[in-house]
Amino acid sequence: MDEKVWDRLLRRIEDGLVVPVLGSQVLTSADGVDSLQAQIAQYLLELYDIEPGKYTLTPSRELNDVVIQIKQQQGADFQDLYADIHDAIKHLTTGSNAIIPEPIQQIAAISSFNLFVTLTPDEQLARCLQKRCAVNEIIYSPYLPTSEGSDLPKDWQSHHGEAQLLYLFGKSRAGPMFAIHDEDLLEYMHNIIARGSHVPVKFLDELQQRSLLLIGCNFPEWLSRFFLRLTKQGRLLDTQRKKEWLIDNNPVNKDLVYFLESYSKGTKVISDISPKTFVSELYQRWQARNNESEKTPSLRIEHVPHGTMFFISYCRGTDYACAVKLGESLQSQGVASNEIWFDEHSIAPGNDLRNHILEGNQSCRYFVPIISKAADALDEKYFRREWHEAIERGKGIQGRTFIFPIIVDEDFKLEEYQCIPLEFKQLLIGHAPIGEPNEQTRAALINLVRKERLKRA
Fold first, then answer.
1. Residue 165 CB neighbours (<10 A)
2. Can you list the positions of beta strands (E) in 72-201?
3. Residues 408, 314 share a domain
4. Are 349 and 372 part of one and the same domain?
5. Residue 178 domain-assigned?
């Protein structure tokens, strides 16, 4: 790819017009040798006591090959294989020794992307995205229980600080609700074309209107044609504004290349660099254009950490010391430092403050606005925007505490505060003089922490 092509691609990405579609070739070990698919295949061979060298496995197609061999040679029930593969995925992608592939981390860090498609059933991409924003996981499978079907929200573009992630071939579970072999892929595509059960129509409509980055998808030749047609509003021959970039580790099938050159001029095949190399360069170029390396030093953390329990919202000019004291009090109650978020340093005007506000509001479990007479006297500060965003999110939360306002003045009368939102006054309001919670407020915070711990257990 020359500089002009990179520039056009990055401009489209920054305008929100490109959706990354990530396939199995992106999930490789640090040395780029072993793919997750190959590791799962090896896991199954050992589980079923099959000699590893007994069969020749097709690169990037190892899982399909092993599933067929186990079925044919041992007559294994396909139902059991889904559970076995689910266990393998958990074993290989979680735990202290698991390392999420660098390309997944880099793609997730590109905040210009807000729609994602994964073709693999693991949740590594979701975990990376959760480090910078909330994630709405849309799981498509014709075999999901009726109550579990989902699609892109109509107002998804107003869900600031939230990424939309589609699992196109299901998400790993102990049952047959994700694709593990080619016949599964055929059924998933047939169900979509026939507009059968749980088809994410709204998400597919968005894919038809946006350009696609097909990274390491490793589709069978027939599936490539169907997928490209599925994600276009008209025929491949029709001239459209959208484009596709097909980045594949293996030599692309000659018949497919000829087909695309003849009928889909908007699809560019890139096979001279690996998906890993492509993602690395894309990430570095995007960082350079968006000055990401310059933003990080001015913040306590680059993004709201995954698992944030408390988002402390305060006016830095008046209540910074109280916010620090409250954070220390929460830590003394067993809340980890990475479960508490607030911006510790002033944020330079050039930084994307709004994105950080939205990340905090959309990612936290509890929103804690600090109220003081000094802050109340200020009529135009960014903390009020944080409060507004929290109130909007709270409208969609029922049955649990989300906003827990805390007054930090030593003495107060609620009616004397002129700028406290009405929505806050209708809630239980805590009291933490100079940031140190009183007995009642401490008990309420401990109860919130206990509920969260039980939920996560």
1. 22
2. 115-118, 134-139, 162-167
3. yes
4. yes
5. no
Q: How does pLDDT run across 148-207, given as a tens digit for each residue?
A: 889 999 989 887 778 999 999 999 999 999 999 999 999 999 999 999 999 999 999 999
User: What value, to the nearest 5°, has the Cα angle with vertex 121 and ends 118 and 123?
Assistant: 80
Strands (DSSP E) contained in 334-429 are 340-341, 366-371, 406-407
Structure tokens at 302: 């680059």
Task: Based on the fold, state whether residues 373 and 347 are members of the same structural domain.
Answer: yes
The continuous run of DSSP H or E covering 244 comes out as: strand 244-247
User: What phi, psi does 250 have (nearest 5°)?
Assistant: -100, 155
Q: Say if CB 305 and CB 338 are below 8 A apart.
A: yes
Listed in sequence order, the DSSP H helices in 296-336 are 316-332
Whole-structure pTM value: 0.66
360-386 pLDDT tens trace: 677 789 999 999 998 888 866 778 888
Name the token pair of 28: 């490789």
Q: How far is CA 123 from CA 89, 167, 343, 393, in A?
A: 9, 9, 29, 25
Do 135 and 265 belong together in one domain? Answer: yes
Q: Of 404, 411, 403, give the one whose Cα is nearest residue 434.
A: 411
What's the domain count of the chain? 3
Residue 430, H or E segment: strand 430-431
236 found inside a domain: yes
CA 337, 341, 344, 349 torsion-angle sign: positive
Angle at 388 between CA 386 and CA 394, to 5 degrees: 100
- Under 8 Å between Cβ of 50 and 69: yes
Contact assessment for residue 207 and residue 231, using Cβ atoms and an 8 Å cutoff: yes
The answer to whether the Cα torsion of 174, 276, 223, 147 is positive or negative is positive
Local structure of residue 170 (DSSP, 8 states): B
Question: How many helices (H) and strands (E) would you count in the chain?
Answer: 18, 12
Q: Which alpha helices (H) appear in 32-176, and where do they start and end?
A: 36-47, 62-74, 78-93, 102-109, 124-129
Closest-CA residue to 71 (of 58, 83, 61, 80)? 80
For residue 442, give its domain range. 298-456
Per the domain annotation, does 177 fall within a domain?
Answer: no
